Amino acid sequence: MARASGKASNPWQSLSRNGTGLNVDEFLTFRLTRLSNALRTNLTKRYLEEFGLSLPEWRLLALVTRFSPLRFSELTSRSSMDKGQVSRTLRQLDKRGLIKMKVVKNKGSRSTEALAAPVVVAVTPAGKNLHKDVLPVARKRQAEFLMILSESERAALYATLDKLFLAIGESLVAEADVE
Hints:
- The chain has 179 residues and is mainly alpha-helical.
- A 3-stranded antiparallel sheet has the order 1-3-2.
- It has helices at residues 28-50, 55-67, 72-79, 83-95, 110-114, 125-146, 151-178; strands at residues 70-71, 99-103, 119-123.
- The protein has a domain at 151-179.
- It contains 7 helices and 3 strands, in the order ααβααβαβαα.
- α1 crosses α6, α2 (55-67) packs across α4 and α2 (55-67) crosses α6.
């Protein structure tokens, strides 16, 4: 079905519980992934190049600056990145002198000592300065893009995303309780 404007009708409007008729390119996950990739490529990467930062470096630098100091495990969780990528990216940031990592040695039993010691990550003065330079540019670019939407559309989008995050969080907790 096509509207007068030539755009396809909204396949989500009359959605059945089993999703009959939804094509892969109409899945929520597909559309959000495409949007996320496009935003990353056309919005974020462009201003990060000016500062010599990759997207993972910026994400971790911003989180470490905001929550410094924090444990590696918490940083991995907050960033939604896998441990390997977090580890590689932190090493790069450390080499550049933007963060520092410290192994926390716990006193305890031999079994505790056999486990990998937790790592705490903190931002350095150089990291704070770079963050201070990048953040206004990042905020401006994000705001410019959000201004494509009306105030009510921005409010609705934010509320919708919150609702979806809450729903996915609740389902993950429910799955963990079953297992």
